[in-house]
Amino acid sequence: MSAPLHIAVLPGDGIGNDVTYEALKVLGAVSDVSGRALAFDHLPWGADHFLRTGITVPSDGYTVLAEHDAILAGAFGDPRVPDNRHARDILLGTRVSLDLYVNHRPIRLIDDRLCPLKNRSTLQVNFVVFRENTEGLYAGIGGRFKAGTNDEIAIQEEINTYKGVHRIVRHAFAHAASAGLTRVCMADKSNAMIDGHALWQRVFREVAADYPAIEARHLYIDALAFFLVQDPSAFQVIVTNNLFGDIITDLGAALQGGLGVAASANLHPGRTSMFEPVHGSAPPLAGKNTANPIGAILSAAMMLSALGRHEEAALIEQAVHAAVINGQTTADIGGTLGTRETGDYVAATIRKARAPEA
Ligand code: NAD
Ligand code: IPM
Ligand code: MN
């Protein structure tokens, strides 16, 4: 075995635990067959930990995360923490503290039958969303005055910086260029948000000028929602702000079969990054062996890919494709298996793919 990569594991709340367990099972299988070691440090942060200790993230928490090669996260959110404070500190806090400015969310239909749109094939749903991940309406700047009274004033500011907008737009074009793609769409709401989103307009034109071979299209976010349902094949790369990216990637998750299969990476290229499924903690499904682990498993594949282990990432992707095509999945995408059995199938497929010939 080679020197291990050190992965911080944050399963979190609800089905975050169920699906992360399966992602680790699959990573174990891939590590066994490749002979390349992975070492996991489990961190208990989540609602239970917060309710027990009053701590969301320990004082050295972000530093501890940054000392790892990568972070694998599950999901955060629990009805016992109605203000979602722990999730904001753990998830949004990590995105900001580690400056993970790229939220990379691929939307890829694995099997025609999973698309909720009529007569669509896998060739027609295959694009990637780059969501700005450190500013926008998520900056946490605002406050409430006379809270709880009928005179309450609630303010939530949207932050758009030249640096922040520029680096995510540039990342989108650079990705398109390196992947041989020819279309980038930027979505904003510059017809209504005339200051903040004028900055997006300016930066988009500026960066697009450096990529003359790439078609740079602008859509207002409401029109993007419309076109994504009407004709997803029109899109290859989408770049947008934090909130719009959050919303549009749940729509994208639906196009590829549901939240159970959607994967994501929170990246700062070259630095410790975090990988997590797009879905939340789905409290009603927690612990019931029902949640689909594929989004978490594909997020683990994105992690290996970002760490340069492309072959191992491809092994996971191929095994997931086999599970989906053969119907060896959970019920949300038409199978009859439980969470654990789906993970078992994917892990066994990886081991079989690499078993020595008899
Ligand atoms: P959710 O993603 O948890 O659930 C939305 C719907 O999708 C539900 O019907 C759920 O059953 C289904 N679903 C989600 N994941 C699934 C899976 N793996 N397999 C099968 N079905 C799945 O979103 P929500 O209900 O809006 O939020 C629940 C909690 O999760 C809230 O506290 C919310 O803040 C939190 N949340 C966290 C994250 C995250 O940690 N990244 C993301 C979204 C929501
Ligand atoms: C996501 C989630 C988070 C977000 C929530 C839990 C704060 O919806 O990762 O998509 O809005 O970013
Ligand atoms: Mn979301």
Tell me, what's the shape?
globular
Q: Helix and strand string, N-terminal first?
A: EHEHHEHEEEEHEHEHEHEEHHH
Strand order of the largest sheet: 2-1-3-12-11-4-5-10-8-9
Indicate the percent of residues in helices: 40-55%
Structural class: alpha/beta
Strand content: 15-25%
Mean of residue pLDDT?
A: 97
Main sheet summary: 10 strands, mixed
Bound molecules: nicotinamide-adenine-dinucleotide, 3-isopropylmalic acid, manganese (II) ion
The end-to-end distance, rounded to whole angstroms, is 24 Å
Number of helices: 11
Would you identify the regions where 5 or more consecutive residues have pLDDT less than 50? none
What does the radius of gyration come to?
A: 20 Å
Total E-strand runs:
12
Key words describing this protein structure:
alpha/beta, two-stranded antiparallel sheet, binds nicotinamide-adenine-dinucleotide, binds 3-isopropylmalic acid, binds manganese (II) ion
Note down, in words, how this protein is organized.
With 358 residues, this protein is an alpha/beta fold. The protein contains eleven helices and twelve strands. Strands 2-1-3-12-11-4-5-10-8-9 form a ten-stranded mixed sheet, with helices on both faces. It has a two-stranded antiparallel sheet with strand order 6-7. Helix 1 packs across helix 9, helix 1 runs parallel beside helix 11 and helix 9 (294-306) packs antiparallel against helix 10 (310-325). The longest helix has 20 residues, at 15-34. The radius of gyration is 20 Å and the shape is globular. The chain starts with a strand and ends in a 5-residue tail after the last helix. The model has no long low-confidence stretch (mean pLDDT 97). The chain binds nicotinamide-adenine-dinucleotide, 3-isopropylmalic acid and manganese (II) ion. The site of manganese (II) ion has 2 residues, from helix 8.
